[in-house]
Predict the 3D structure of the following.
Amino acid sequence: MSRADIGLVGLAVMGENLVMNIESKGFRVCVFNRTAKRVADFVNGRAKGKNICGAHSLDELVDCLDSPRKIMLMVKAGSPVDEYIDALIPLLSPGDIIIDGGNSYYLDTIRRTKRVESKGLLFVGAGVSGGEQGALLGPSIMPGGSPEAWPRIKQVFCAIAAKVDGGIPCCEWVGNDGAGHYVKMVHNGIEYGDMQLICEAYFLMGEYLGMSADDMHEVFKEWNKGVLDSYLIGITRDILAYKDEDGSPLVEKILDTAGQKGTGKWTAVAALDEGVPLTLIGEAVYARCLSSLKDERVRASNTLVGPRPAGKFSGDKKAFIDDVRQALYASMIISYAQGFSLLRSASDTYNWGLKLGDIAMLWRGGCIIRSGFLSNIKEAFERSPKLENLLLDPYFSDAIAGAQGGWRRVCAAALTSGVAIPALASALTYYDGYRTARLPANLLQAQRDYFGAHMYERLDSPRGEFFHTNSGADGHWHIINTNCV
C-alpha cells in the first residue's frame, strides 16, 4: 500500500474534519489518536472507503508516511503539544516536519521552533480558523515557523484552505517561529471585539428600544447586505430567528454567562507587552469576565440604583436603529485598527516582516471574522505599506467621519439610560484620544516625577531630553533645580 502524504494526531471534531478535508483534495492521510478505539471507530466509520489509514502507535504513524514526513498535531494547547513533540523527535529524520495546528500561545511556538530545529527537524505553528465547518469545508490557515517547511506543506495547505475571488486560497506563509500563532491570536482578539460589539447592538435594541428577537432578526438581515456584511452578522441574523420547541426565541433562554478559551486574554496581554492601546478588545475580554459574575449581578440589580432603560425610548425608532448601525460599523473599524496596530508593533519586535495587507486577505474566507471590508484593509496597506493606523487611511477616516454622529448619539443615550456598552464606548473613547494632539499625560508625568523622580520631557526642549524637579521636605513642589539628564 502507498505511503501517506501527511499524518494527523488528534481525532476530536476539528481533527476529524481536517482529515476529511485533506483526503477530499486527493491526499492520503494516516491518523493517530491517544485512544486507539477512536482511531478504529473513525477509520471504520466516517472514513470508511476513504484514502485514510489508521495507526496504533506513533512509530506506526511515522512508518506510514512518505519522506519528508509531515505530522500535524490537532491536540489541546499546552503540555500535550510538548509531550507529542518529545515523543516524535526520536522517531523522525532530518528535514521531517512537525505542525502544530492548535491554538497555541505564540511564545510557546517560538520556543518549540528553536527546540525542534536544534534536532535537525522543522516546525510549523499554524493558526487555523473557521471552527468545525471551516476545518471540513475550508479554513483560513496562518502558518509560521521554519521557513524551509513551507514549500513542503504548501500544496496540502493551499488545497484545503478556503478560496476567494475564484480560487485564491486563504493561506500564505506568515513569518518565522511564532508569527502564525501570533496572527491567529490577534484574529481571535478581533473576534472577541466584534462579537461583543454585536451583542451590545442587540442589547440596545432589546433593552432600550424594546424590540423583539424577530424584529432584530430583520434588522441584522438588512445590515448583512451592506458595509456590515460579515460572517458574525450573518450568524446573528440566523440565531435571532431560531425558535425553541415552544416557538419562543431560543436566544432569550440562554444563560447570560460567556465562556472563553484564553486567546482574547492573550491578545490583551500581548498588547500590554507591546505598549499598544488595545482598549476595545480588552473591554470585550472583561465583558465576558463580568458576565460570569451572574449571581453577583443578580444581587447587585436589587441593590444598586441607576436608570432602567426598559420603556424609556420615545423618539424615532428607525432613526435610532440606523444610529446603532453606524456605531457598530465605526466600532468594528476601531477593532481592526487596534488589531493591525498590534500586528505592526509585534512584527517589528520579533523581526517577522508581517505583510499586513496579505494578512487581511487571509481572513476573507473560512475564518470567523471574515467580512466585506477586509479588502479595504488590503487596499489601505497597498496605498501606504508603512501605514501606522487604519484610521489614517482615507477610506477608513471617511467612514468614521460619516458614522460618528450616530455613534455619539448611541453612546450618549446608552450612558444616560443605564445600558452597559463597554466596547462601543471604549471604541469611541479610543478614537477621541487618538485624534487629540494634547492629552493630560503632562500632569501624569508631573505626578510621577513628584513622588518617584521618574523625570519628564518638556515642550520647549528637544524630545529625548529628560528633566527632574525636586520636591521639598515640606511636601510642596519646589523648583529648586531642573536637571537635564
